[in-house]
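Morning run. Coffee first, then this:
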Amino acid sequence: MSRDKTSGFTLIELMLSMTFISVLLVAIAMTTIQISNIYNKGITLREVNQAGRAVSSELQRSIASSVPFDVTPKSDNSPGTENSKYVVRDGGGRLCLGNYSYAWNYGKALVGGAGAPAIYNKYDDNTPVRFAKVEDAGGALCSDVNLAVTKAKATELLSTGDRELVLHSFAVTETSSDPSTNQALYAITMIIGTNDRQQLTTDDTSCKPPSAGVGDENYCSVNQWDIIARAGNKAGGQ
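And here it is:
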């Protein structure tokens, strides 16, 4: 008489197999999350850097095609600043460069809240400006600091997608000039980045470290650009 013998897994072997599979699945999940975090951080860094390079190039081209201009900080229409092409406010500013002017609000102003500066630049439909290039051949936006920006003549330079890029600071100074050639050099320093207030340091110059435990640091990036631009080689002045 023969007896059929069947073989199978023991309970211990099944438990070991299930444990191995569970560990493998956890490892795959953690790796996927890590790759996703690296990808999101890379996208954020890329968007900020691309925006900074694009704005820097835009300003350099506009300054190169203009004649030397006065950058005495102008906070109102007070005497002595009538010819200034650089308007400064806590919440934003303006820079007028001949055919085009630039108007912006800082990130803090756009978010608002307690202690935030007031929004300075608004379109003619009362919506806030982010960072706009405006057709303004006469420089009216700098002649009248209270003039609204015409939306139909403006182009926003910063995206408002998931990363919501904004200008955090902007400063322009004249570093040198040569009246004999009607040329001048200007230094511009600006900070561009994301605008999640929880993730930014109080001075808006960097993102808080992961140890701060606020928001998702993969969607935070801030960078500073320092550029030099030359105006001149044109007859006349502004």
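Confidence is low (pLDDT under 50) at residues 234-238. Good start to the day.
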